Recover the amino acids of this structure.
């Protein structure tokens, strides 16, 4: 009989991740707030639960990936939440991107009920989720990570232990700063190229291998040239992550002026109804002014 | 008898570039404002000229690489400048990083004297200059680039024709935006990592291969972790380049708020006597506040 894994949150990331675990032969019990999203997974062999609590009753290992800190608290701790069905010694692995402090608070409250917890946010997007090539950034006790590792190995190509609970979220916040600022550079450079009358396709072609190079330039530069801002990673979601970043920075007395510029450009996108576009859509905040 | 090449400007970039041409077997006539910098090249087989004018008298192809727009105008156009010794049909290749408009003005004034001109700024730093692996960004007539190409091939691994005169400088300006903003991201992410209590070495180790990845993160991230800000590319020089960027942006009506943040951080470095440090020294503008 295969091991049973609980999986909470079947969005653009969670659905393909749960599918990978089903395909790997695990018995997977799934929950999603919008129940219809569970149907394709049930068709693939999963069992659906009506509440997070019911997921936890059936599994020693429960993974979750939802949108924001309040969502994670809701599915894990609120009425009907997973903690209320947790088996003795269960391990919860939250793969959402939330505030490090929220992760620490969840860890404390779960610990009071005898539930082990690690935070394990991911990078690599929906493509990484489908292909099992995510990078997984883990905060928590090393022995808890070791316990989750065989399952996480089906989801990610790289698993990094970052420190105690919350440390995975801290590194994820750093990653979102890098993504946001690399996009600011790309947006301003592309706008200057157009204003200066050169072919913006020269940027990814001639500059990607040099000191100005980045994943953003190489992968998203050609999409900006084509004015293709299909997501990818959505502006509304990176804005949520950058709010987490600024809350951390505020608490630490760190003025992150560059991150604030990225937020301004993305806010311009949102003000123009472009929040559901990919982050490369930032180019629209400048490109037309030239 | 080998072809003779003129070479003006023997700084951190020009000296190793001229050396490569000597090593390739060319007869090289050199000029530098501070004459002593020509001595090692003369010892290697170059001939020294007392003025740019004398360089141009002896060569059909004259390369120059100096610091800023006024320096390029001085060595090419002022009294004693190369134009006053130019052979009929000579080709001047200016590899300095200057304003696109300055390059266009130089091209116009040289053209009035029957001298062909291309702008050909480079990326790749002193290491690229030594190893002949520069990326050369060329603006000018395709036939002029073709004429220079055999010689440029000893200096660069990649030669990109960007458009008419000035277009090389425009793409170089775009590159400097990318370098500056990737460094802003790295600086803010590193500062948040330290403030959040995680090992900043995790950033290059765990994030360089992902969507937050950049040349800056991979190559300069470990140096920031080690607090090593030896240049590399100097803060004073990228500030000069970013002033060119902002002058272009101002003329085009483009507000480059992210570039302005990079300038602020680098100005903080300069205010603290760190202008001769490498650009990765930007980390000092934030790292200690946490």
């Amino acid at each position: 009989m295969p091991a049973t894994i609980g999986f909470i949150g079947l969005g653009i990331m969670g659905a393909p991740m749960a599918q990978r675990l089903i395909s790997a032969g695990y018995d997977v019990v799934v929950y999603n707030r919008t129940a219809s999203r569970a149907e394709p997974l049930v068709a693939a062999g999963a069992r659906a639960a009506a509440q997070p609590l019911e997921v936890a009753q059936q599994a020693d290992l429960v993974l979750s990936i939802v949108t924001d800190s309040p969502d994670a608290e809701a599915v894990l701790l609120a009425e009907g939440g997973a903690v209320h069905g947790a088996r003795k010694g269960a391990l919860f692995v939250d793969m959402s991107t939330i505030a490090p402090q929220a992760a620490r608070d969840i860890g404390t409250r779960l610990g009071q009920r005898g539930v082990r917890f690690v935070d394990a946010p991911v990078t690599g997007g929906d493509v990484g989720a489908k292909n099992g090539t995510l990078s997984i950034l883990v905060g928590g006790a090393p022995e808890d990570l070791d316990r989750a590792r065989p399952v996480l190995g089906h989801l990610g190509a790289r698993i990094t232990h970052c420190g105690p609970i919350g440390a995975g979220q801290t590194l994820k916040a750093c990653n979102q700063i890098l993504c946001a600022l690399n996009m600011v550079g790309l947006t301003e450079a592309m706008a200057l190229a157009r204003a200066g009358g050169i072919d913006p396709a020269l940027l990814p072609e001639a500059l990607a291998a040099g000191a100005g190079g980045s994943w953003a330039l190489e992968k998203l530069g050609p999409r900006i040239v084509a004015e293709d801002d299909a997501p990818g990673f959505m502006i509304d979601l990176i804005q949520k992550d950058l709010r987490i970043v600024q809350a951390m920075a505020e608490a630490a007395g760190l003025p992150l002026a560059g991150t604030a510029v990225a937020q301004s450009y993305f806010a311009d996108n949102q003000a123009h109804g472009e929040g559901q576009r990919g982050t490369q859509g930032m180019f629209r905040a400048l490109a037309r002014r030239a």
User: Anything to note?
Assistant: Chain A touches chain B through 72 residues (CB under 8 Å). Chain A has a mean pLDDT of 96. The beta strands of chain A are 4-8, 27-31, 47-48, 61-64, 91-94, 116-119, 122-123, 134-139, 156-163.
